[in-house]
Design goal:
Strand content: 5-15%
Order of helices and strands: HEEH
Distance between the termini: 50 Å
Helix content: 55-70%
Strand order of the largest sheet: 1-2
Largest sheet: 2 strands, antiparallel
Number of strands: 2
Shape: elongated
Number of helices: 2
Structural class: mainly alpha
């Protein structure tokens, strides 16, 4: 299994390397107020991919923080486990 994982990673790396070599041309990125930058196409694609991944992680983080805060709030409302008596089942007598 480790060999398969290593071969798969090597294949993905070689595909990405070939993609980067094929797309090494310069592109001009124009922004507002007559601002422009020139950069390799592969760098622009990588930067946009990273920004998309960051946006996805932030969206997932925001959606998971709400329930976590609610859980902490509800835990504070419960009495502590040291003051409660342990629960005994009816099957213990049998």
């Amino acid at each position: 299994m480790k060999i398969f994982s290593l071969l798969l990673r090597a294949l993905v790396f070689l595909l990405l390397l070939g993609f980067a070599i094929k797309n090494d041309g310069l592109v001009t990125v124009r922004a507002y107020f007559d601002t422009s930058w020139q950069m390799p196409l592969v760098l622009l694609i990588l930067a946009m991919f990273a920004l998309g991944m960051l946006a996805g992680v932030l969206a997932m983080l925001a959606s998971s923080l709400g329930p976590r805060r609610e859980l902490e709030r509800l835990r504070k409302l419960l009495p502590s486990s040291s003051t409660r008596s342990p629960v005994q089942s009816d099957d213990a007598d049998a």
